[in-house]
Write a structure and sequence with these properties.
The protein is mainly beta and about 350 residues long. The chain has helices at about 5-45, 275-280; strands at about 50, 60, 65-70, 75-80, 85-100, 110-120, 125-140, 160-175, 180-195, 210-225, 230-235, 250-265, 280-290, 295-305, 320-325, 330-335, 340-344. The protein has 2 helices and 17 strands. The protein is globular. A hairpin with a 6-residue loop joins strand 6 (about 110-120) and strand 7 (about 125-140). A 12-stranded antiparallel β-barrel has the order 1-3-5-6-7-8-9-10-12-13-14-15. The chain has one domain (about 5-344): Outer membrane phospholipase (ompla), Chain C.
Length: about 350
């Protein structure tokens, strides 16, 4: 092999090595970017908190309430660019204020635990991830059970259980030049109890449940954000050929439709497997976030509880309607292009 051929051969070897290294660097950069994007997905797919309208915000329930409210969020304890794994501490609290003389809450609903997330693919636009959680659920009571014939002693009846669940989430997002227009999101779940629980719920509570959640979201896009009159777009087809965002832009969630279905599959003492009136919980929710709202939305929801999920109220079953204001991680991103200012 003459010197020219040797030089060419060595050059090719070095080029292949360099190109492979560059490719690996690109892959690693893409992975780091994906890990960060998925953390946002985990937060966006977390249930929204809400506050119902006074007196009329929870219709159909067995009791009359002044208001009901749920506060649920996720504290991302681990969520780095270097790992497809993330970990969150999740507090999830619900209260119902009864419309009686002293306006009591009696038995607030407490859920708290850890959720682990794991990215399963390499696309944020067509994402896949799995979650595993360990949760505690109680009503902050710690006394002897005192049943009352024909009803429940809501005031001081103890309720406590621990449970785990596994979930598989997948979905797709329509994105054009970093503008989000809509997304469809799915979730399947298997939940079951572990460790100890209150004896009073044995044989009459949905310890093991399978569930499905469907969510469809649409987004709006605004240009010339810093001008007095900005341009608003709700569909990609309405966008002009040239997008002038020199004075800033805003991309935010506008509508969200959600559907939940859950069915208890464990043994009940007094109900067979097909007793949907007792085992089935289902609900639909609609959220609208007007332009002037930031990570909040108007809410309308309706559903049926075969088993009220509010701790010791679990024997109640009824159809209901809820109205109010929701808050949470609705996608909201604004940027003033001529500065470094950006908010999520």
């Amino acid at each position: 092999m003459n010197m020219k051929k040797l030089t060419l051969f060595i050059s090719i070897i070095f080029f292949v090595i360099y190109a492979n290294a560059q490719s690996q660097d690109t892959i690693e950069i893409n992975k780091r970017e994906l890990n960060l994007k998925f953390v946002d997905l985990y937060r966006e797919n977390h249930p929204l908190s809400y506050f119902s309208l006074p007196y009329v915000g929870e219709l159909g329930a067995k009791n009359k309430y002044i208001f009901t409210a749920r506060l649920s969020t996720s504290f991302m304890v681990v969520g780095t660019k270097g790992s497809p794994f993330a970990l969150a501490l999740v507090p999830d609290f619900t209260v119902r204020m009864l419309d009686i003389k002293s306006k009591p809450v009696y038995t607030p609903d407490f859920r708290i635990g850890f959720i682990g997330y794991y990215r399963l693919n390499h696309s944020a636009e067509n994402y896949r991830y799995a979650t595993f959680a360990f949760m505690h659920h109680s009503n902050a009571q710690d006394i002897n059970d005192k049943p009352i014939v024909g009803t429940l002693n809501y005031k001081n009846w103890d309720f406590s259980t621990f449970y785990i669940y596994g979930r598989y989430n997948w979905g797709s997002t329509e994105i054009d030049n970093n503008i989000v227009w809509n997304s469809i999101n799915h979730q399947v779940e298997l939940k079951t109890n572990v460790l100890g629980d209150s004896p009073v719920i044995h044989g009459d509570f949905g310890f093991t449940r399978v569930g499905y959640n469907l969510s469809f979201r649409t987004y709006s896009y605004f240009t010339d954000l810093l001008k007095k009159e900005e341009n608003r777009y709700y569909r990609k087809s309405k966008m002009p050929a040239k997008n002038d965002s020199s004075t800033g832009w805003l991309n935010k969630e506008r509508f969200r439709w959600e559907f939940d279905l859950s069915y208890a599959i464990n043994k009940y003492d007094n109900y067979d497997f097909f007793a949907a009136k007792r085992r089935l919980n289902t609900e639909g929710r609609f959220y609208w976030s007007p332009y002037f709202m930031r990570q909040t939305a108007l809410m309308l929801a309706a559903g049926y509880y075969g088993e009220d999920p509010y701790n010791i109220y679990f024997k109640d079953r009824y159809a209901w309607i809820r109205t109010g204001i929701a808050v949470g991680f609705l996608k909201y991103k604004a940027k003033a292009s001529r500065s470094n200012y950006q908010t999520n």
